[in-house]
Design goal:
Helices cover about 85% and strands about 0% of the residues. It has about 290 residues and is mostly helical.
């Protein structure tokens, strides 16, 4: 009986060890680099909401939008840089359990998108303070981004920046109630964020589901992300911009703008969580739809 128990114990330990090794194989150096890229991208895109808050705070919305465009450009550039690396994960998958292996790697990437969004939310108070001063300096430099960058890397301004670091606290949410949230806008942003998060990943996974149409499936990622961007521009950006204008023109309160901005950040976080659920169905839909493109 002791021998049977000992054999069973060794078998259980071997299974646990094999699972650990499998998980370590999934977390390759390349995957970690890609995941860090995704974390930075989603942190920047989340913090983009802080630019409008800062612009309304210092009454320089046009200058704020210039800084906002720079941030969006940086995040898009980083996204373009990581896409070939993400695609290369498909080229190095094992021949056994290929779909399961790729799925787990891609779910790690989606998880880092959620983590990056959360980091952006936690850094909101700090970056509102920093961006407010950056917008003022940008106005003083007559809109010159290179001059602003040159000034920002000086030791004096870096030390000032550290003084504006604020630890996140619930007091920042004072006056914000979930009852005041525009529910329709919240849901739309959740869906758009989910689509944008899985656009490339679902297309790459679809290439494995339909190998005879793999090129068509992979190229569809641009169409998906483009559609998500268009929906964002049509339904989300104008609403936030009008609220910011109302604050500057004293037709609305700064609290209302902050309320909606925090809500949009929260909806982005939920969107990245929803992406985990939509990832495989999205890939299957892309694989099915590609048959009509050939």
């Amino acid at each position: 009986m002791n021998r049977e128990a000992s054999t069973k114990y060794k078998y259980v330990n071997r299974v646990i060890f094999e699972k650990k090794v499998k998980n370590l194989d999934i977390l390759t150096d390349k995957l970690i680099v890609i995941a860090l890229f995704i974390l930075i991208i989603h942190s920047i895109e989340t913090l983009a909401y802080a630019v409008r808050l800062s612009g309304a705070r210092v009454k320089l919305l046009a200058s704020a939008l210039s800084l906002f465009n720079v941030m969006v450009m940086v995040s898009r550039l980083a996204n373009m840089m990581q896409q070939p690396f993400t695609g290369s994960l498909i080229d190095t998958v094992p021949e056994v359990n290929t779909l399961a292996f790729v799925e787990q790697q891609f779910r790690v990437i989606i998880g880092f998108a959620s983590l990056g969004t959360l980091v952006g939310i936690l850094l909101l108070p700090t970056f509102v303070a920093i961006f407010s001063r950056a917008i003022i300096h940008l106005s003083e430099e007559r809109g010159s981004i290179p001059a602003l960058f040159k000034k920002s890397v000086k030791i004096e301004y870096i030390k000032r920046g550290f003084k504006h670091i604020h630890m996140p606290s619930f007091s920042y949410l004072k006056g914000i109630s979930w009852r005041d949230i525009p529910f329709k806008l919240f849901i739309i942003n959740v869906l758009i964020t989910a689509i944008y998060t899985i656009g490339v990943l679902s297309a790459l996974y679809a290439a494995l589901l339909a190998p005879e149409r793999h090129a068509t499936a992979m190229m569809s990622s641009g169409l998906i992300n483009g559609l998500a961007t268009i929906l964002l521009i049509i339904f989300i950006d104008p609403k936030i911009s009008i609220l910011a204008d109302d604050v500057i023109n004293q037709r609305g309160s700064y609290l209302s703008l902050k309320r909606v901005s925090v809500m949009m950040m929260g909806s982005r976080l939920l969107g990245t969580v929803l992406a985990q659920l939509l990832f495989i169905p999205g890939a299957k839909y892309i694989a099915w739809f590609t048959q009509f493109m050939t």
